[in-house]
């Protein structure tokens, strides 16, 4: 049972169903696919065909960078390592870093070639340098994608060049961007760089939102099949949002629609921390323990996203779910309950609650006394 303090705090939560329901606020975009996500909570603030298969084009290179960053973190490669430019990589079409045939290029330069210049040649050099063949690198991309929760993506190359079995979704690209920010803060700065010069060729990042309104990444993309797209991340007043738009008709339009989507998110929603890590949420009953009750605390900070203006009333319930009573012994940190917010029997939000302290098992006499008390209350006293 939820205590009074908890119930009052949950009252705020009932308005947080914005999530993928855009009726509360009128917002439209010309993008064929669009997805807006709050970084801290993973909450979806806007969704237009966000889980529909799309051509990710050069936004694929964010996944390429993720795999490279993983190899750097695991010390499989070093930023100062040099990779050989094969003829296969040198001949790669589309946007280029303009690496020279049979030259050796530093990993750090190749990363900038991929992220800033969107070089398809640089992408292939990295893929071949790490895994020997681009097809094997693509398998690694897919393995990492599954690990971070990209459930509707399949990669066949490191550049995003057209392939009928190469696809993703706006939601998956947003999940990927969030993973980059979270998992590799030491490398994320590459996505903020506005220009890079290599081989005496100066090229500019096509993400012209960089440095404006808190935008500090990530990557544009374009193919005839996918149209113009971009995944962007922006941080303002301690909040970070990630926006993905795709299927647009021009560079100018993708930047405009991404900017609109970010403005929509920052203007209409705010983040609310309900509980800090280790803060008591409720008290649960204990069976066969040396104590009869135990505080269930937040396993981590519990934060939700709320609309600044309530557009409608939602019929939601907030509950703490656990098998009562919980049987001792119990160790501090054990998961003993779940905090859930539900609507129409669907779970909108769920997080674990853990034991605040150890609870040792009672001795034989104590357990027997509890059994007697239980049967007395249930079968005799209740009659």
Automatic annotation (TrEMBL):
Q: What is this protein called?
A: serine-type D-Ala-D-Ala carboxypeptidase
Q: Which catalytic reaction applies to this protein?
A: Preferential cleavage: (Ac)2-L-Lys-D-Ala-|-D-Ala. Also transpeptidation of peptidyl-alanyl moieties that are N-acyl substituents of D-alanine
Q: Which InterPro entries match?
A: Beta-lactam/transpept-like, Peptidase_S11, Peptidase_S11_C, Peptidase_S11_C_sf, Peptidase_S11_N
Q: Where is the Peptidase S11 D-Ala-D-Ala carboxypeptidase A C-terminal domain?
A: 269-361
Which is a GO BP term held by this UniProt record? cell wall organization
Report a single Gene Ontology molecular function.
serine-type D-Ala-D-Ala carboxypeptidase activity
Q: Where does substrate bind?
A: 219
Q: Which UniProt keywords apply?
A: Carboxypeptidase, Cell shape, Cell wall biogenesis/degradation, Hydrolase, Peptidoglycan synthesis, Protease, Signal
Task: Indicate yes or no for the key word Ribonucleoprotein.
Answer: no
Domain of life, per UniProt, equals Bacteria
Q: Does the keyword ATP-binding apply?
A: no
- Pfam families from the entry? PBP5_C, Peptidase_S11
EC class: hydrolase
Q: Which family does it belong to?
A: Belongs to the peptidase S11 family.
Active site as annotated = 58 (acyl-ester intermediate), 61 (proton acceptor), 118
Cited SUPFAM superfamilies = beta-lactamase/transpeptidase-like (SSF56601)
Q: What is its EC number?
A: 3.4.16.4
* Pathways per UniProt: Cell wall biogenesis; peptidoglycan biosynthesis
Signal peptide start-end: 1-26
Residue spans making up a coiled coil are none
